[in-house]
């Protein structure tokens, strides 16, 4: 199925809380029909608390040390903006073969539905992050007033545990306070009188209320009074009163089911943008990011749960639950002369350098202005960089990447796979090769097939600058 434009009530590419539930089926369908998904996040802070102590600045930290620091950082700070860009190859597009992109931007708010047992979150910012985002036009008011919701798997399990505790607690009778005896006696008298006259009652139910109302504790002890002393009747609480009526098993089952359905509906709404991450994981769609080691750690913390303590367990989780993960930073530092200038592999600089590579073509960003450090725009820039870089590296070749520097035994087989794949790499040729292919058939100018040995060399290799190893390998 070809990707088609979405019809949004707001702007073409930004989706806020009021739009999200309506657009969710379309978003999931776009991910399902895509060839790959590019992802980008903006954070409320990155880096450990200086009070916790830092790695010795006179030496580079190891990858494991950097991972631990990021896990601590993700415990403190949050993802506050998320960008995704599903992309699909369309070889028979009307004008020319191209990649169709659909970038979207979401502010991610910390709000939690009150009905979820008053579960709450702390939300912290670093002063450096605030200053950086303000300089780049970040709208903090939109974050809190219109940001989309989220709920991690670990958080959801915790909330479901709270519900089980409440359901079990509701079955246990609690002792009543002496001062509530008159109230209970009044309720008892009303019910007894009503039952005696039930044959002549026109409505078949009794409403009990009082001017002062009833608090949660009082509602509970009245309910247990009815269950204990009037087992053939039940009580249904409304906002201001209690309704007593004859027990009906089918109705009681429906009430229980309706409560469960309502709870599940609230959970579905609260999951919010996590639905998109879940879909990517479910389908194991190729996931593309730029310099994305931090993104992966924060993504795990926010949408899944506490990252594993050991970096090799984190590696194993990613391998088992995601498809191919590609870092465009790793592609960029092996493209042409870029590796002589690390700064030129930044996402913004990379965009300028790729502008002279016309094919393969990818849709322009839907807004005709740069939106640097806006997650949705950066996700699109990442998708564009991925399409151009992987095509160029595949057809033109490059200097072979060095083998991974990590020494973990779990990577021995992966290192051998990379070494074997490198023997199949074509020799490096000039960029005129791209022109030759363009003249022959533009449809051939596209990213390498996912089963290609190219991805055994360039896939699953994530730059982690400033560490001893310099790379996290999957």
Automatic annotation (TrEMBL):
Signal peptide residues on this chain, from the entry's feature table: none
GO BP annotation list: nuclear-transcribed mRNA poly(A) tail shortening; priRNA 3'-end processing; siRNA 3'-end processing
Cross-referenced InterPro entries: CAF1_poly(A)_ribonucleases, RNase_CAF1, RNaseH-like_sf, RNaseH_sf
Q: Name one Pfam family in it.
A: CAF1
GO function term, MF aspect, one? 3'-5'-RNA exonuclease activity
Instruction: Spell out the GO cellular component terms annotated for this protein, sorted alphabetically and separated by semicolons.
Output: nucleus
Q: Which family does it belong to?
A: Belongs to the CAF1 family.
Fetch the PANTHER family from UniProt.
POLY A -SPECIFIC RIBONUCLEASE/TARGET OF EGR1, MEMBER 1, POLY(A)-SPECIFIC RIBONUCLEASE PNLDC1
What name does the UniProt record give this protein? Uncharacterized protein
User: Which species does the entry assign this protein to?
Assistant: Arthrobotrys conoides
